[in-house]
Amino acid sequence: MAKEETEAAKAAKAVREYRTEELAEAAGIPVRTLRFYRERKLLPPPRREGRIAWYDDHHLARLRTIAALLERGHTLGGIAELTAAFESGRDVSQLGELLGIGWSEETPVRLTPEALADYFEGEVTPENLAASLDLGYVAADGDEIVHVSRRLLDVSSALVREGVPLSAVLETGRRVREHADALATLFTELIATHLSEDALPRLRPLAKSVVEAELSMAMDRLRTRADQDPSS
Question: Is 100 left (phi over 0), alpha (psi -120 to 50) or beta?
Answer without folding.
Answer: left
